[in-house]
Amino acid sequence: MGPPVRFSSLVRRGLRFRRRFESIKKNVAADFAWYPYDSFVNLFAMERLRREAGLTRDELAGGLPLLDLGTADGALAFLFESLGMTVHACDWSGANINHMEGVRRMAAALGSRVEIEDVNLDAGWTPPREYGLVLFLGTLYHLKNPFGVLEALARRARYCFLSTRVAEWSPDRAVELGRVPAAYLLAPGELNGDTTNYWVFTPPGLVRLAERCGWRVLSQWRSGSRTSDPASAAGDERQFLLLESAGDYFKSMSKS
Fold first, then answer.
1. CB-side exposure of 83: number of CA atoms within 13 Å?
2. Residue 227 belongs to a domain with what CATH number?
């Protein structure tokens, strides 16, 4: 597979950009809370999946814009812009930790040209243009209608990096969920006290969802607890998928 993922150019450039990103955050006047998680760690999984699928980064981009759904404070959106890509970054101020003040302040501080849009994905949103690659990381379980959003993306994007929380067991550990393609519907506040968390899929359930929505799974990887459940901190497991659209638009592009 070549050099380890941690030595890949994307990871190395991403970690250098993270130092710059965090330094700028310290100097931005902020009367709000920044997104508390490290978005850059996703680069390790993304590179692993890309290599397993046998694709180059140029093939993933395809000369088209990149869409970052659930951009939080824009960490990965600004990184990929710095690598020369046109980027469209979306989040919803109604659920974003700082109502999207963070991504807008960072854009101003960086002199960024990333297109930033406030969208509620559950309110009938459809992608406004074609994209080579979508980053859809850590957002799926915040959606009431993940089926509709993934279907819409499959019609307008060629590739997608998807990650979300998954579960092998029920919260009380009495039911083994991971043997079947299923999803657990969270009670309000059951996961992290956050009422915007809805569906936690089983690993085969997430694959089934992607396939039913018009995607092919090119590679996949899981990290975290292998006795996972939908709600506890100790039972947190994440599944990463690299998807390729099976839609007619991108089939015709590949033949041209």
1. 22
2. 3.40.50.150
Could you read off the pLDDT of 125-179 as tens digits, one per residue? 999 999 999 999 999 999 999 999 999 999 999 999 999 999 999 999 999 999 9
Residue 124, Cα to own-chain centre: how many angstroms?
19
| 87 burial level (CB within 10 Å; 0-12, 13-18, 19+) | buried
The total domain count for the chain is: 1
Fill in the DSSP letter of residue 31. S
Are the beta carbons of 68 and 139 closer than 8 angstroms?
A: no
The vertex-194 CA angle with 193 and 200, nearest 5°, equals: 105
Q: Are 100 and 34 in contact (CB under 8 A)?
A: no
> How much is the pTM?
0.93
Q: What is the pLDDT of residue 6?
A: 72
Q: What is the DSSP string of 221-249?
A: EEEE-SS--SS-STT-EEEEEEEEE--HH
Helix (H, G, I), strand (E, B) or coil at 200: strand
Using one digit for the tens of pLDDT, what is the confidence trace for 59-78?
999 999 999 999 999 999 99
What distance in Å separates the CA atoms of residue 36 and residue 84, rounded to the nearest whole number?
27
Q: In the chain, what percentage of residues exceed pLDDT 90? A: 91
Q: Which range marks the domain in which residue 25 is found?
A: 5-255
Which pLDDT does position 256 carry in this prediction? 47
